[in-house]
Amino acid sequence: MATELTAADARPNARTTVDRGLRARRRQERVVGFVLFGFSAVSILTTLGIVAVLLFESSTFFRQIPLIEFFTGTRWSPLFESPHYGILPLLSGSLLIAGGAAIVALPLGLAAAIFLSEYAHDRVRRVLKPVLEILAGVPTVVYGYFALTFVTPLIRAIVPSTSVFNAASAAIVMGIMIIPMVSSLSEDAMSAVPRSLREAAYALGATKVEVATRTVVPAALSGIIASFILAISRAIGETMIVTIAAGATAVLTLNPFTSVQTMTAFIAETAKGEAAHGTIEYQSIFAVGLTLFAITLLMNILSNVVLRRFREVYE
Amino acid sequence: MSGERPGPDVRVPRPSVARAPEAPPAGEPPPAPTNRNDDRFDVRLRARARFGTVFAVLCFLATLIGVLVLAALLVDIFRDGFHRLTPAFLNGMPSRFVERAGIKPALVGSAWVMVLTAIVSFPLGVGTAIWLEEYAPNNRFTRIVQTNIANLAGVPSIVYGILGLTLFVRGFALGRSILAAAFTLSLLILPVVIIASQEAIKAVPNSIRLGAYALGATRWEAIRYQVFPLALPGIMTGTILALSRAIGEAAPVIMVGALGFISFVPTRPLDGFTVIPFQIFSWVSRPQVAFQELAAAASIVLLALLLTMNAAAIWLRNRYTRKF
Amino acid sequence: MSAIHVPAGPIELESRALSVYYGGTPAVRDVSIQIPDRKVVAFIGPSGCGKSTLLRCFNRMNDLVPGARVTGEAIFQGQNLYGTGVDPVDVRRRIGMVFQKPNPFPKSIYDNVAFGPRINGYRDDLDQLVEHSLRQAALWDEVKDRLDDSALALSGGQQQRLCIARALAVAPEVLLMDEPASALDPIATQKIEELIYELKQNYTVVIVTHNMQQAARVSDLTAFLYLGSVVEYGPTQTLFTNPREERTEAYITGRFG
């Protein structure tokens, strides 16, 4: 039977001090590792929690409203005598506004990224870039206020038939809000394009704009597209601007000058409202929330896939 | 060569070489290209240069539009709400009577929520970051955790509100309270805190850790006494920025049940409450112009608060970050 | 007796008192040399002697470096490249460049070669031009069946020859090569050197190299630069076997560098 050498064998007096200290420290190390792992588990639990809550609570809803009606129905009127629960009006509201926001943000954001990455002097970039970031930091309630009190009257001056609550106002303001997302991520992608590629294009007799648009942007395209997808996903998931400025009329329409309701606005207004817990109307929050969560999650995953898949090709 | 001065063509004329009618057999060098003096290329230098200038200007304007809209927003809010920023406003309760309305409960509520959110999210977020950077083995599970955090950062805030409503308000029976809001917002900003802390920890050079290990420190001791203090400024900056986001959030707070009509100042974590963004939302939803002005005034307060927090974060970063 | 040789025959490129300053530091000092038509001229010298900077003067690539200042003249076919009213875009089409590390665009092989002609408004048959350029770069046979494949799938040596083909596609009159083979293995290097020998029939080639044996193999004239100045310039054979300057001899015998 082998006997283990311990610290006591080495130096008879060591056992009491070194050995005990070491054991205690090792124990502390294990405990700390365990605790930190537990903290990290919170992030996993959060996701599981979201999925569980949405699925579980939606299931009671879907026991009463068939999936087909929910996903293909074109009327959303929970409060009517004969209620309808077709999500398409809410979905179209979200997509209409997100689409409008994209029309504003994608070109402006990309152009800003090109300016900051290819044209701006260092000093100019150091000032302009943080200023653009401020746009991302303004609380969405404040944007909602701005949309309702400043942008909407402006639109109504141009298109008099616009209603007080309208999709265009929310879309424009939301577009401005997500410009930094597009510009920042696109600029990162463009800065990552190695200088040697630009030099190669210049050496062939390309002008600066040709280098920027025909060499750098195509080389950074995966990052740029990923930023587009993320920005649109953000626009779909935004709540306050649409709740304040876009309206509460769930209607399937492409007309931006009328009142629409998005998925997020519906959830917010129903939760704030008088619907009692347990009613179908209340449970519909979870079904709509599930749809919203699924859409934004898929878009975020798509954005990651685009980023990774095309970056490999480039490198 | 293009130039403003017309000049004699001083190029040495070249013997033109007849072009081969078809490609030569492989291995032989091809004959010289005929007539290299530019006429196969329609170089259009001036048109391309003009286009380049127009394009650059457009890009610059695009960058400015965001700045201009921001300026318009600030002017609009100040113009609408500045005159309502009185001490009575800051110290008063919301009321049906516009002249007497104030945001004191909202201020106190926001302060409560911010402090509690900080207490919950800081250890959780930093702890997770430490685990991911220092302890986690490089395996599939860790990658899943990392990807999951990135995904959580993109989940809409109202979905967090739904989670908070079900889990904290009803599940944990916390009711429509400050505590429920704080927990919900902590979950919301947790990914941001984690990612910012990870960056700060990553920035600490490995030589520091190795030095500590070489002296016989355990992993935790190396972190606690060496890595963490060096990463702390970056962690604090990230946390403050995350908290500033939490303060401005209204959607999760709506779901958790902030009170639209509040007549008291919250004093305990389980009290009902309101926060500044929710108060803004309440007021802006009323049709009377006077309430809109109150909303504007509250917006000014909120923006001032955010500005202070962001300035503090930047000051922290500039003052305490060491370049390695 | 000047150590700077004046070549006979038509002069394609010339520098007169050319200096380049980065900030306040001169990288190239007062260089005056003449590069004859359709010959290969090599610039050699130790690291940091300014040979790449001098090379880049001839296609105005130094313009792209913020803080770089050029004084003196660079003459191409009788006209000063740095004169007022000269568009660097035009200069760069007519004086091409190949870089040290192959830098193909992340596009197909065809699109790489076609990029230059397209932006320069090529009016003729593009397919034929692409084939022609790839043949000149001795790459056609290896890629003719996969022109749509990504250029990044090629080996290092093939990528460099692609870059040469790309540069040739805009029909330059001069080809500047900045250490074109230094990132390549010996076999690929040899292919590039053979290529240079063929190219000199139709193009004036200026090549920067830190490899003296390469300069000796490939070039007609060689310039030895040290600390931004041309120490000696003359026929390659003479410079390597019977250098006039002591510093030149010290460098080529390996006493420093």
H/E series of chain B: HHHHHHHHHHH
CATH class division of the largest domain in chain B: Mainly Alpha
Low-confidence stretches of chain B: 1-35
- Supply the number of helical segments of chain B: 11
Q: Which value, in Å, is the CA radius of gyration of chain A?
A: 27 Å
**What's the architecture of the largest domain in chain B, going by CATH?**
Orthogonal Bundle
Please give the CATH class of the largest domain in chain A.
Mainly Alpha
CA-to-CA gap between the ends of chain A?
Answer: 59 Å
Determine the strand fraction of chain A and express it as a percent band.
under 5%
Reading the helices and strands of chain A in chain order gives HHHEEHHHHHHHHHH
Number of helices of chain A: 13
How would you sum up this structure, described in words?
The complex is a heterotrimer of chains A (315), B (324) and C (257). Chain A has two domains: 58 residues; 239 residues, MetI-like (MetI-like fold), CATH 1.10.3720.10. Helix content of chain A is 77%, strand content 1%. A two-stranded antiparallel ribbon of chain A has the order 1-2. The longest helix of chain A has 51 residues. Chain A is globular. Chain A starts with 6 loop residues before the first helix and ends with a helix. The mean pLDDT of chain A is 89. Chain B folds into two domains: 39 residues; 236 residues, MetI-like (MetI-like fold, Orthogonal Bundle). With 324 residues, chain B is an all-alpha fold. In chain B, helix 3 runs parallel beside helix 6, helix 3 runs antiparallel to helix 8 and helix 5 crosses helix 6. Helices cover 66% and strands 0% of the residues of chain B. By secondary structure, chain C is α/β, with parallel strands linked by helices. Chain C has a single domain, classed as Rossmann fold (3-Layer(aba) Sandwich), CATH 3.40.50. In chain C, 34% of the residues lie in helices and 26% in strands. In chain C, the strands form two sheets. Chain C has a six-stranded mixed sheet with strand order 6-7-8-3-9-10, with helices on both faces. Chain C has a four-stranded antiparallel sheet with strand order 2-1-4-5, with helices on one face. The mean pLDDT of chain C is 91. At the A-B interface, helix 2, helix 4, helix 5, helix 6 and helix 7 of A face helix 1, helix 3, helix 4, helix 5 and helix 6 of B.
